[in-house]
Known about the structure:
There is one protein chain. By secondary structure, the chain is mostly helical. The chain contains 13 helices and no strands. The protein has helices spanning 2-15, 17-25, 27-36, 38-54, 61-71, 73-98, 100-103, 109-113, 116-119, 124-133, 139-145, 153-179, 183-211. Helix 4 (38-54) crosses helix 6 (73-98), helix 5 crosses helix 12 and helix 6 packs antiparallel against helix 12. The longest helix is centred in the last third of the chain and has 29 residues, at 183-211. The model has no long low-confidence stretch (mean pLDDT 80).
Amino acid sequence: MAAALVLALLLGCLLLYRPVMDAVRDPDALRAWVAEHRAVGRAAMVALMAVQVVLAFLPGEPVEIAAGYAFGALEGLLLCLIGASLGCALAAGAARGFGRGAVERFFPPERIEELPFMRSPARQTATIFLLYLIPGTPKDLFDYAIGLTRLPLPRTIALTAVARIPSIVTSTIGGSALGARRMALALGVMVLTGALSLAGLFVYRAMCRRDGR
Length: 213
């Protein structure tokens, strides 16, 4: 029953793929629609973020920027965190329900094996928090991989939500600046975000090499 529910939710996310991309491509239309449908708009933003997490091939930054553009930096951050947590719960639940073989259909086994928290069970919680905190790390893969651990999912997902704050808030600040037509601030935030993501990627690769020794 649980596996059937997870499968149904995943299929629902696939059906929402095009609406997600349409909303991200036209943030002005999203903002106008949100202004007209306030409660529904917020629920839709949460759903957009959750779908982006489950559909790991979708980039997260455009959705986060759209959230900042439509709702402002702080409310956009909150909505993204709720959506990311829901998406993470779905991805991790799918991995735990269907097993490692199902995850390996989307991610090569070597990518799963190189994850630092898969190599070091004794310090999994601290490592997961650090990896989610670092910008530029492949959090789409992490969301599925934590379902392959023995960690309690509710507590772990709550921990990842806290760790996501720095990377998401930079995107929502950038989106909010775009909405206010503060182009210099928006450009500065996006350049800084890109630099931090690149640095984070190097740190992550170094952690994988170190733990792979």
